[in-house]
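Holo model, iron/sulfur cluster. Inputs:
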Amino acid sequence: MSATAKSPWIIHYDASSCNGCDIEVLACLTPLYDVERFGIINTGNPKHADIFLVTGSVNERNGSVLQQIYSQMPEPKVVIACGVCACTGGIFRECYNTLGGIDKAIPVDVYAPGCAVRPEAIIDAVVVGLGVLEQKRVSLASGTLEEASLPSRLTAADKMVADQTVRASALAETIG
Ligand code: SF4
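Output:
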């Protein structure tokens, strides 16, 4: 196991969560869960981070912020979607300004569902993420790591057209 996998540094970003999932992320740092004893450090600098932990869904404003933070992180790196909002858009999915889960803006390696996501699920996702990080590190060392491309960003207008298309086809099926 590499030094990175033994002591991964994490950057946490609140995309547009209700703060429920963020409180659970903070709970991981409290003495009860105390992830620092496993060498997991919470950093504020994307250039120092190995794991990008995101809560909340994507909208037109924060999509480019997510992409900027992701782009500043050095390879190898892993993205974890924390909570159902980050995974799919969750309860905000149908809001006019919500484009969906964070995979609408950046590539996601691990999905940790839950509303709010439990600290145990966050720690479990980090452990799974460490396996992915190690695989990427080996690929990077052998020169075979393919840089993940950023998804082209969806706009609210795109989403509206897509929603209308889905509704129109559902209506056509109902009418027969
Ligand atoms: S998954 Fe639930 S707790 Fe987490 S940000 Fe969304 S609504 Fe809030």
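Residues 84 and 90 are 5 Å apart (CA to CA). The mean pLDDT is 88.
Archived with the compound record.
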